[in-house]
Backbone:
């Protein structure tokens, strides 16, 4: 099964014969979906990590100090994912602005906006993969 | 209501907000700067919904959880 991020990337690369402006609209919507799904998955993953560490401390298979080190390392990766999501949202905002400009018959760099969203999606995918989070 | 449900509801609102801003621009009711500001505002409305789900990865949360770990370890 394709992941949601792969699905969103396909919208950019295939386009299904849609006009560039429609492709951009679909890309913005797909980006919003990925943002929300990834945010939700990240929150769930953090909760699961915390429960796992608590259990390991409870059953004495790990010391508190070890758990603290492991947790801080996990949270640092999580922060990178949050940063990637923030960048994704910025690129979605910029993309929507370009769409509005083109709709208003003003100059706008649609390919550039799409490329930025695509790059931001790739960063989100990499950050989530680093945490073992799949969406 | 889950986030997917919320976003399915909110995405059309965002896109309608953008379309309405473009329409106002084309009718000469707003200028380019106002057009951009309205598009950004439409997206910020959507972000507030999703952002509420973004986990807090700050130091405060880390400290609180480490404290919780220590409390658990102290239990008999």
Residues:
């Amino acid at each position: 099964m394709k992941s949601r991020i792969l699905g969103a990337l396909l919208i950019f690369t295939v386009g299904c014969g849609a006009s560039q402006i429609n492709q951009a609209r679909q890309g913005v919507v797909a980006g919003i979906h990925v943002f929300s799904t990834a945010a939700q998955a990240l929150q769930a993953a953090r909760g699961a990590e915390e429960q796992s560490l608590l259990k390991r401390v409870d059953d004495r298979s790990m010391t508190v100090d070890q758990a603290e080190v492991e947790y801080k390392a996990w949270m640092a990766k999580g922060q990178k994912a949050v940063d990637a999501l923030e960048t994704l949202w910025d690129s979605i905002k910029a993309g929507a602005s370009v769409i509005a400009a083109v709709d208003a018959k003003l100059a706008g760099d649609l390919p550039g906006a799409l490329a930025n969203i695509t790059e931001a999606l790739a960063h989100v995918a990499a950050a989530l993969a680093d945490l073992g989070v799949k969406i | 209501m889950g986030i997917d449900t919320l976003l399915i509801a909110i995405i059309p609102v965002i896109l309608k907000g953008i379309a309405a801003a473009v329409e106002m621009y084309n009718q000469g009711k707003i200028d380019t700067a106002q057009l951009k500001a309205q598009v950004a505002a439409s997206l910020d409305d959507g972000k507030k919904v999703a952002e509420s789900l973004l986990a807090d990865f700050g130091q405060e949360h880390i400290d609180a959880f480490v404290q919780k770990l220590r409390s658990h370890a102290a239990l008999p």
In short: Chain A touches chain B at residues 25, 29, 32-33, 35-37, 39-40, 42-43, 46, 50, 53-54, 57-58, 63-64, 67-68, 71-72, 75, 78-79, 82, 85, 89, 92-93, 96-97, 99-101, 103-106 (CB under 8 Å). Residues 3 and 135 of chain A are 6 Å apart (CA to CA).
